[in-house]
Amino acid sequence: MLKTKEKILAVSIDLFNSHGYQQINLADIAYAMDISRGNLAYHFKDKNLILDAIAKKMDHEIKKELSLKKDFPAFSNLQIEIKSYHKLQNNYQFVFGNATVLHHESIMKVMHSWAQETISGNKAAFLFAIQLGNMKPEPYSGMYQLLAINTWMVTYYWMTQKMVRKVKNTEDAEKMVWSVVIPHFTDKGISSFTKHFGFEFLNSLGEPFDTTSSEISIF
User: Fold this and answer.
1) How many whole angstroms from its chain centre is CA 165?
2) Rounded distance between C-alpha atoms, residue 29 and residue 8, angstroms
3) Domains annotated on the chain, with CATH
4) What's the pLDDT score for residue 216?
5) What span, in angstroms and rounded, lies between the C-alpha atoms of 109 and 55?
6) Can you tell me the distance from the alpha carbon of 124 to that of 190, in angstroms, rounded to the nearest whole number?
7) Which residues contact 46 (CB under 8 A, 6 or more apart)?
8) Distance (Å, whole) CA 110 – CA 158
């Protein structure tokens, strides 16, 4: 059975996701829990304190998910990160879809920490892949640094960009990330990738690109 504080957080997250963070106040949360406003205030005096607790909860959950990663920089770790952050975005939609919440001090602190760790992990995976002969050497200076950041951005802001573009759930975050990494694989890397994911995955990244378009710009 959930303790009172845990129940408050669970109800708050549900209300924030359903109605939006700004639209919900402490009275709404107390009403949903069938407790007095004073009883709620005993545990959390304002919504800022609730967000602080939610930030800690998110951090605990993502670390638990990421504990499944291998203890060396394998590309399979990237797959785990994509799935973990996608799950987090679904559970905390009000965080990833609200700039005000994202800039809350405690939320921003854990987000910044995750970002730094993920980007560093991506760079380590690229270096390891190069050393194994699975990934080509960097073609242009700084390209893999940007690739490490780009793969993080796709993973982190997957839900937000879908909201902005108003796309259906047919797009796959995992395939979107791999689509920018795979072109840098060597033949050996492609072989290793298909052994892990299968040719079907590689051949179903998305809709075939239309090369018959007349809208061609020359630069």
Assistant:
1) 17
2) 8
3) 1-45 (1.10.10.60), 58-202 (1.10.357.10)
4) 62
5) 9
6) 19
7) 26
8) 18
Q: Give the number of other Cβ atoms within 10 Å of residue 191's Cβ.
A: 11
Residue with tokens 């994509």: 82
pLDDT tier at 107 (50, 70, 90 boundaries)?
very high
Q: CB–CB of 19/49 below 8 Å?
A: no
Are 202 and 193 within 8 A, CB to CB? yes
How does residue 185 score in pLDDT terms, banded at 50, 70 and 90? very high
Dist CA 30 CA 38 (whole Å):
9
Tell me the angle at which helices 75-91 and 105-132 cross, rounded to the nearest 10 degrees: 160
**Cα gap 38→59, rounded to integer Å:** 28
Residue 9, token pair as written in the block: 């957080």
The whole-number average pLDDT for the span 129-156 is 93
Type and span of the H or E element at 93: helix 93-96
DSSP the chain: ---HHHHHHHHHHHHHHHH-TTT--HHHHHHHHT--HHHHHHH-SSHHHHHHHHHHHHHHHHHHHHTTS-SS--HHHHHHHHHHHHHHHHHTHHHHT-HHHHTSHHHHHHHHHHHHHHHHHHHHHHHHHHHHTSBPPPSSTTHHHHHHHHHHHHHHTHHHHHHHHT--TTS-HHHHHHHHHGGGB-HHHHHHHHHHH-HHHHTTSSSPP----S-----
Structure tokens of 194? 């298909």
Q: What are phi and psi of 135, to 5 degrees?
A: -135, 140
